[in-house]
């Protein structure tokens, strides 16, 4: 995903008259009914553009960025690092350079409130934003006040002032958008102010796989490029149904896959930022992963029927309600958990302190618990939480061993934990399980980044301390027609996590 903005490319003009529509067979005879586009597809977008363009602005920042003095410092990263930056016994002053950022935005009120992306007005690296400038389509510049930002949704609100009223646009209802609807984007790609592009809605509520509560976008083929971030995506009634946010691009330029934050998500957040209201989001305190084919197979449940709980934070809402690692959450407050309506999204939009029912599957049984939703921590606090993320170091070729069933089916050599191995791995005597001694690089276990030194705590929710126990679980899984086994794996320095490994 490359941060970007919308637009870039030639405007589309349509020939008069409709193309031949798709043909649909009727039940009563062979007559074919013609399906034509809804009314509203224009011959030109010029009138709509003329009406909307005055409210779309260019946003630029001037930043003061600290430059590292450690280049060439042989003591960098050591306790003596500061000595290298001394001259004449005095610590050298930090060095700075000037930086800039460029993006788009749109005015939402006559008194000059402006919406854009948070990353458009955020400092770069070790920088400080010293000035934000909003440039109108006619070239008039205004100094902007930063009213509020929300990094989690990547939204920001600015304020500009003048004697007369500003032209402005309004949010529409993005929930009514359908794939195939016409959309128009106006913005400032590559600093080219007032650029207009058109396209269609390619998908609604697109989950890009980046994770987070707001990984839920309108996808469009309207050209989006760098500098368009924060610009509006309009429907044919001139309402803002999306805020251009990112593109998918191997090259860094538009390839026709752009993403906009839906208005139904953005509008309430913008209203809170504008009014100075603290944004509080719901939080369960769990680490989750999608219910992949392998996970579903290992659990014997349908795919896309929930999300998998990898770990539970001590003391948080989920633990207090009895939710455990290994559970599959299928419903939140009566709403199904799906790839388009993720657990993170549903919980984030529930007020902290609210008690809600949560439906989950545990060891094949459907359960229901009541959870009092907590308050979501800041992004910095979330980043500090450790997660299981194997780095996939290469292993030496696995030598043939004695645990034939485990090697053949999982591609793993395992050993029971003993006192010496525990000392080598730095784990206490209370840790029970099997340690991975080798991984077949041609097996699914290697693709899932299992490696030597990992400790298998359980398989299909059953603790394993002997090779015979693991072999029996594998054989049971095969008898039940399952194609994978769910392992709970502990790695040094990481939380225990579940990994579904395919049988072979």
From TrEMBL:
Region of interest (Disordered), ranges: 79-99, 373-400
Q: Which reaction does it catalyse?
A: Acts on substrates that are at least partially unfolded. The cleavage site P1 residue is normally between a pair of hydrophobic residues, such as Val-|-Val
Q: Which GO biological-process labels does this protein carry?
A: proteolysis
Residue ranges of every copy of the PDZ domain listed in the record: 280-346, 414-473
- A GO MF label: serine-type endopeptidase activity
Cell compartments where the protein resides: Periplasm
Q: Return the EC number.
A: 3.4.21.107
| Positions that bind substrate | 119, 154, 227-229
User: What coarse category fits the chief subcellular location reported for this protein?
Assistant: periplasm
At the top of the EC hierarchy, this enzyme's class is hydrolase
NCBIfam families referenced in this protein's UniProt entry, alphabetically? degP_htrA_DO (TIGR02037)
Q: Which family does it belong to?
A: Belongs to the peptidase S1C family.
Protein name per UniProt: Probable periplasmic serine endoprotease DegP-like
Query: Top-down, what is the taxonomic lineage of the species of origin?
Result: Bacteria, Pseudomonadati, Pseudomonadota, Alphaproteobacteria, Sphingomonadales
Identify the gene encoding this protein. dop
């Amino acid at each position: 995903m490359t941060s970007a903005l919308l637009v870039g490319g030639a405007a589309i003009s349509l020939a008069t008259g409709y193309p031949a529509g798709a043909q649909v067979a009727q039940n009563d005879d062979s007559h074919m009914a013609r399906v034509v586009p809804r009314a509203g597809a224009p011959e030109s977008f010029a009138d709509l553009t003329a009406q909307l363009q005055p409210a779309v602005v260019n946003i630029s920042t001037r930043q003061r960025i600290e430059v590292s003095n450690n280049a060439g410092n042989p003591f960098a990263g050591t306790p003596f690092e500061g000595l290298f930056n001394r001259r004449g016994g005095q610590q050298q002053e930090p060095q700075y350079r000037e930086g800039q950022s460029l993006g788009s935005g749109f005015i939402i009120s006559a008194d000059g409130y402006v919406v854009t992306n948070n990353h458009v007005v955020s400092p770069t690296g070790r920088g400080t934003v010293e000035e934000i400038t909003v440039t109108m389509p006619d070239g008039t510049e205004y100094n902007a006040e930063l009213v509020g930002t929300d990094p989690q949704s990547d939204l920001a609100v600015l304020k500009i002032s003048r004697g007369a009223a500003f032209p402005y646009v309004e949010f529409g209802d993005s929930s009514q958008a359908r794939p195939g609807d016409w959309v128009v984007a106006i913005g400032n790609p590559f600093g080219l102010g007032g650029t207009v592009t058109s396209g269609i809605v390619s998908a609604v509520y697109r989950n890009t796989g980046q994770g987070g509560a707001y990984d839920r976008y309108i996808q469009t083929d309207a050209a989006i490029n760098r500098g368009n971030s924060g610009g509006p995506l309009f429907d044919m009634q001139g309402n803002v149904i999306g805020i251009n946010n990112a593109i998918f691009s191997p090259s860094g330029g538009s390839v026709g896959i752009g993403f906009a934050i839906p208005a139904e998500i953005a509008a309430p957040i913008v209203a809170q930022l504008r009014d100075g209201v603290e944004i509080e989001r719901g939080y369960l305190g769990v680490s989750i992963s999608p219910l992949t084919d392998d996970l579903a197979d290992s659990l014997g449940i349908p795919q896309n029927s929930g999300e998998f709980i990898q770990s539970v934070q001590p003391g948080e809402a989920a633990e207090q309600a009895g939710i455990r690692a290994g559970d599959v959450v299928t419903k939140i407050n009566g709403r199904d958990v799906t790839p388009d309506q993720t657990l993170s999204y549903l919980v984030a939009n529930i007020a902290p302190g609210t008690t809600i029912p949560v439906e989950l599957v545990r060891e094949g049984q459907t359960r229901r618990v009541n959870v009092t939703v907590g308050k979501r921590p800041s992004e910095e606090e979330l980043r500090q939480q450790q997660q299981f993320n194997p780095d996939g170091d290469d292993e030496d070729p696995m030598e043939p061993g004695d645990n034939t069933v485990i090697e053949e089916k999982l591609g793993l050599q395992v050993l029971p934990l003993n006192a010496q191995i525990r000392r080598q791995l730095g784990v206490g005597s209370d840790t029970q399980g099997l340690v991975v001694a080798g991984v077949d690089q041609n097996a699914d276990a290697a693709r899932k980044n299992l490696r030597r030194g990992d400790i298998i705590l359980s398989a299909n929710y059953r603790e394993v301390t002997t090779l015979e126990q693991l072999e029996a679980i594998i054989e049971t899984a095969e008898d039940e027609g399952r194609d994978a086994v769910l392992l709970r794996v502990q790695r040094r320095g990481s939380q225990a996590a579940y990994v579904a490994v395919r049988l072979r």
